[in-house]
């Protein structure tokens, strides 16, 4: 018997006799990220960054100068995971600001969720020059889509390996941990209470996405199925879909195809803006 099988067995037993207690413990675990150290290949970019602190304590890294692109990493992620994309954007003349999400890196907090990620994007946008693009990976992508609904202004939006709805993420975690039905229901309700928004509302099918965008996903993503990208693309009228043949959930961030697609999108948005001004 491996450790995860044992954990699921304990959760199944405890969930039948004390579903609320188990749900509370797993809700805390679900919302408390680990701060994982950067990999060796991230260190040169980290060392070249300017560390900035926003008004309410949110920490970020900045590279380059020029039109601003704002990046948001995923759960337990880091700004420097976007290394290839950051270099590509800076080389193309953009200034890049990459956030440490709430409870990640040097940003304050112990717990986080997709709503807090989205509010962090709004906070950053209020202190930065007008945004040329917002780019998010995984939960960072989900939070960027949500932030648009909360009033985030940007010329373009890029979602990478993001889920289309948060309820599916919650149910997937509860199933993986072996929660019985009553405990699963309590778990979802407790997450909703802490996030302040019903999970069913955190679904791209409910969103109004009126900004040009790009949806990126790898075919072999074992964490978030590529079908999620299809759902986002279908709900987002003005979006392009880039399906990569490989890259999983994390490694795809190092695919040069993403850099090319992002720069192409920004070029298209800029040309459309110039035409609008000329007319």
Biggest sheet architecture? 8 strands, mixed
Average pLDDT across residues? Answer: 94
State the separation between the terminal residues, measured CA to CA. Answer: 69 Å
Main structural class: alpha/beta
> Globular, elongated, flat, extended or rod-shaped: what is the shape?
globular
Give the helix level as a range of percent: 40-55%
Beta-strand fraction estimate: 15-25%
Per DSSP E runs of 2 or more residues, the count of β-strands stands at: 8
Sequence of strands across the biggest β-sheet? 1-2-4-3-5-6-7-8
Q: What is the chain-wise order of helices and strands? A: HHHEEEHEHEHEHHEHEH
Q: Helix tally?
A: 10
Low-pLDDT parts are none
Rg from alpha-carbon coordinates: 19 Å
Characterise this structure:
The protein is of the alpha/beta class. It is 45% helix and 15% strand. It is built from ten helices and eight strands. It has helices at residues 3-17, 19-31, 43-47, 83-91, 114-127, 139-149, 166-176, 181-195, 227-235, 256-278; strands at residues 50-53, 59-63, 68-72, 95-99, 131-137, 157-160, 213-218, 239-244. An eight-stranded mixed β-sheet has the order 1-2-4-3-5-6-7-8, with helices on both faces. Helix 1 packs across helix 2 (19-31), helix 4 packs parallel to helix 10 and helix 7 (166-176) crosses helix 8 (181-195). The protein is globular, with a radius of gyration of 19 Å. It starts with a helix and ends with a helix.
């Amino acid at each position: 018997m491996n450790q995860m099988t044992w954990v699921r067995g304990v959760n199944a037993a405890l969930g039948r006799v004390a579903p609320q207690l188990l749900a509370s413990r797993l809700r805390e675990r679900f919302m408390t990220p680990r701060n994982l150290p950067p990999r060796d290949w991230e260190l040169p970019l980290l060392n070249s960054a300017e560390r900035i602190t926003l008004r309410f304590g949110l920490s970020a890294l900045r590279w380059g100068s020029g039109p601003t692109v704002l990046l948001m990493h995923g759960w337990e992620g880091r700004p420097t995971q976007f290394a290839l994309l950051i270099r590509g954007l800076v080389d193309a003349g953009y200034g890049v600001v990459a956030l440490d999400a709430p409870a990640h890196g040097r940003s304050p907090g112990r717990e986080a969720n997709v709503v807090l990620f989205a509010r962090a994007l709004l906070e950053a946008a209020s202190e930065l020059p007008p945004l040329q693009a917002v780019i998010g990976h995984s939960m960072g992508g989900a939070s960027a889509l949500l932030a648009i609904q909360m009033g985030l202004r940007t010329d373009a939006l890029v979602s990478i390996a993001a889920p289309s709805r948060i309820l599916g993420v919650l149910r997937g975690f509860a199933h993986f941990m072996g929660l019985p039905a009553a405990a699963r229901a309590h778990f979802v309700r407790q997450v909703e209470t802490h996030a302040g928004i019903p999970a069913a509302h955190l679904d791209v099918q409910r969103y109004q996405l009126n900004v040009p965008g790009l949806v990126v996903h790898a075919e072999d993503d074992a964490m978030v199925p590529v079908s999620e990208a299809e759902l986002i693309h279908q709900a987002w009228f003005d979006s392009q879909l880039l399906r990569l043949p490989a890259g999983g959930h994390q490694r795809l961030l190092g695919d040069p195809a993403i850099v090319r697609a992002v720069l192409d999108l920004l070029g298209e948005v800029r040309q459309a803006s110039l035409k609008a001004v000329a007319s």
